[in-house]
Prior knowledge:
This protein has a domain of 29 residues. 45% of the residues lie in helices and 0% in strands. It is built from 2 helices and no strands. It is globular and about 40 Å long.
Amino acid sequence: MKRMIIGQSGAGKSTLARKMQTITHSPLLPLDLLWHTTDYSD
């Protein structure tokens, strides 16, 4: 099952995702890690 959580900055999306992961024991792919660590410069 796939889920997508969307919302404004500071709305608690990551917190909700972590809580859902704990309850459902499903994998979590936080896009914050990709967004803040990817360097698109050459």
